[in-house]
Amino acid sequence: MTSGERAPRVLLIDSNVYFVKRVVEALEKEGFEVLHHPTAAYALTMIEWNPPNIILCATELREMGAFEIVPMIRNDPKTASIPLMAIGNSVEKGPLEAYRAGCDDYIDRRGNPSDIAAHIRSFLQSSQHGFQPTGMLSVDETSLSGNLAHLDLPGIVQMLEQSRQTGALHVNAREIDAVLFFENGEICHAECGTLIGEEAVMQVIQDCQQGGIGVYKLVTGATAKKRTVHRSATDLLLDALREFDENQREPAEKEMP
């Protein structure tokens, strides 16, 4: 961010003082301007004249939480395009409930604050750049979604391969905004930044192994206009993970006497 640019603004709606303190500090270190309100009703009155770049709202607030404010945000043209992330405690049901309610993403409040802040930074960057940010896909468009902290990318690829799925798997992890197209369980096309094809597949797998943070969403039935991947998904996974392990070992071997 240059000196002339304005810091991206986060509206945090949460009544947990300890959580708020830690997350605000982490967000400010990432360069965000943070506005905090403990109640959603009051926070929503502030949005019209001071709109944030993203809204983080707890699901367990006393009056109304993230799931209840989704219709209010989405039905107002002035706020409809503002991303909304739900904050909760349930790793198992939370993400699914958030996506079904219409939230753009879900945050486990028990996570490391710096990881949460980095994820929000990556989410906003992907919404401004790239072909189609993962977090901005609507609930109606997706048939499978979740967090890479709960199920890693190799596991997702293997699951789609075994179930012979056809569709587009969108992946957003830190700086990575990628898409893998599947046809009957085989990866037929991939894009990751400027990379296309098998290089893109290898890159996104290795980057996700490195970070372990991000989200994925599958748009069932979506097809690619061209084929750029000719090797099997299993072969690509094995090669990507082998290269990742070798790259991880190299620095350690160099430090050995």
What labels describe this entry?
five-stranded parallel beta sheet, about 260 residues, 2 domains, Rossmann fold
Total number of strands:
11
Distance between the termini: 42 Å
Provide the CATH architecture of the largest domain. Answer: 3-Layer(aba) Sandwich
**Percentage of β-strand residues:** 15-25%
Shape: elongated
Largest beta-sheet details: 6 strands, antiparallel
Order of helices and strands: EHEHEHEHEHEHEEEEHEH
Question: Helices and strands in order, then pairings?
Answer:
Elements: E1 9-13, H1 17-29, E2 33-37, H2 40-47, E3 54-58, H3 66-74, E4 84-88, H4 94-101, E5 105-108, H5 113-128, E6 144-147, H6 153-162, E7 167-173, E8 176-183, E9 186-192, E10 195-196, H7 198-211, E11 215-220, H8 233-255
Can you walk through the features of this model?
This protein has 257 residues and is an alpha/beta fold. The protein is built from eight helices and eleven strands. It has two domains: 9-128, Response regulator (Rossmann fold, 3-Layer(aba) Sandwich); 140-250, no CATH class. It has helices spanning 17-29, 40-47, 66-74, 94-101, 113-128, 153-162, 198-211, 233-255; strands at residues 9-13, 33-37, 54-58, 84-88, 105-108, 144-147, 167-173, 176-183, 186-192, 195-196, 215-220. The strands form two sheets. The protein has a six-stranded antiparallel sheet with strand order 6-11-7-8-9-10, with helices on both faces. Strand 9 (186-192) and strand 10 (195-196) form a beta hairpin. The model is unreliable at 129-143 (pLDDT under 50).
